[in-house]
Amino acid sequence: FWAMNSDRLWPAGGELDIMEFANYSPNKVTFHISGNCHLDTDKVAKCAPLGQAGVSSTDCETNYFVNKLGCMPKQRQPDGEFFSNNPGVIASEWTSEHIIVYHIPEASIPAD
């Protein structure tokens, strides 16, 4: 499940992978874009889960021909079994200041 700009070819317009699974690997939230783009390590450190400060990859530039795979902040990485046992809604907020991805458990989904 991902979101991307429809005005430019991938990866020039950017891509946010909200749920990215490969086989039995845990989910990861990643970002891809062409050109020079890096995560702000100070902001990412403030949002990292407890005990997981820092980033896995800060360079968001994506070019598979030269092994540039995008960036991925430190995060909880639930697997398919977690989502199966904890149904709910996945939501993301993408602004000019931040991108936040939420898992809202089914019992916490508001009525409105």
Could you provide a short overview of the structure?
This protein has two helices and nine strands. It has helices at residues 41-47, 80-85, and strands at residues 2-4, 15-20, 28-32, 55-57, 62-63, 68-69, 72-73, 88-94, 99-105. The chain is mainly β and 112 residues long.
SSE order and pairing:
Layout: E1 2-4, E2 15-20, E3 28-32, H1 41-47, E4 55-57, E5 62-63, E6 68-69, E7 72-73, H2 80-85, E8 88-94, E9 99-105
Antiparallel strand pairs: 1-2, 2-3, 4-7, 5-6, 8-9
Structural notes for this entry:
There is one protein chain. The protein has 112 residues and is mainly beta. It is built from two helices and nine strands; from the N terminus they run βββαββββαββ. Helices cover 12% and strands 33% of the residues. The strands form four sheets. The chain has a three-stranded antiparallel sheet with strand order 1-2-3, with no helix packed on it. The model has no long low-confidence stretch (mean pLDDT 84). The relative contact order is 0.18. Strand 2 and strand 3 form a beta hairpin.
Overall form: globular
List the strand order in the largest sheet. 1-2-3
Roughly what fraction of the amino acids lie in strands?
Answer: 25-35%
Helical content class: 10-25%
